[in-house]
């Protein structure tokens, strides 16, 4: 009888021992699964940080700045200021035989408000224009003229002057369209009258121009450090009709 009880107690102990070990294994098996699940978000959060530094396409802002047609927009309005019709009223200022007094011409002499020579139907001369001196805007002056017909083979426009010891700077003319496009530059085209150093004028050939309105730019090209002055000068436009 005692032996049966001992065997029964041993079976109970073994049964309880097996049950405890099975519970311990199940809890240990659950713990790694929690570790794996917690490490997964770390790898997912690392990838967005690598893809974030993409905003690099900023250089496109520099190209439109260079292409902005500021000169065209500023000069495209300019032709309305001096186009044809109003310039013919300058006939009141002529002193006979196409002569004009430079100081009495309408306009201020800037590019947007040039001195008005009006419609050129023959030789026109604007006399006694003030000397060009160093410093802006005193080293350049603009004149507007309108060719009413096709110029002849000897057509020219420019400046006539007499150099002196006190006024050694020549006057250089250029022909410009009202939109700012230079047709005849001051240097590289044009010709002198007189002999060096005693030049008496400089002119541009305009026989190849079509009828229309143009701007004659007269300028002093000597360095401002030179501080040379041009003499007073006459502006001459001869269409050669």
Descriptive account of the structure:
The chain contains 4 helices and 11 strands; from the N terminus they run ααααβββββββββββ. The N and C termini lie far apart (154 Å). Helix content is 28%, strand content 27%. It is globular. Strand 6 (172-176) and strand 7 (182-184) form a beta hairpin. It has helices at residues 2-51, 62-67, 70-76, 79-82, and strands at 99-101, 115-120, 124-129, 140-147, 156-161, 172-176, 182-184, 191-195, 198-205, 212-219, 233-238. It is an alpha+beta fold and 241 residues long. The protein has a 6-stranded mixed β-sheet with strand order 1-3-11-5-9-8, with no helix packed on it. It has a 5-stranded mixed β-sheet with strand order 2-4-10-6-7, with no helix packed on it.
List the helices and strands and how they pair.
Elements: H1 2-51, H2 62-67, H3 70-76, H4 79-82, E1 99-101, E2 115-120, E3 124-129, E4 140-147, E5 156-161, E6 172-176, E7 182-184, E8 191-195, E9 198-205, E10 212-219, E11 233-238
Parallel strand pairs: 1-3, 2-4
Antiparallel strand pairs: 3-11, 4-10, 5-9, 5-11, 6-7, 6-10, 8-9
**Integer-rounded radius of gyration:** 46 Å
Mean pLDDT: 73
Low-confidence stretches: 5-97
The chain-level structural class is alpha+beta
Strand proportion, as a percent range, falls in: 25-35%
Described by the principal axes of the CA atoms, the overall outline is globular
Order of helices and strands: HHHHEEEEEEEEEEE
Strand order of the largest sheet: 1-3-11-5-9-8
N- to C-terminal distance: 154 Å
How many helix segments? 4
Which bin fits the share of residues in helices?
Answer: 25-40%
Main sheet record = 6 strands, mixed
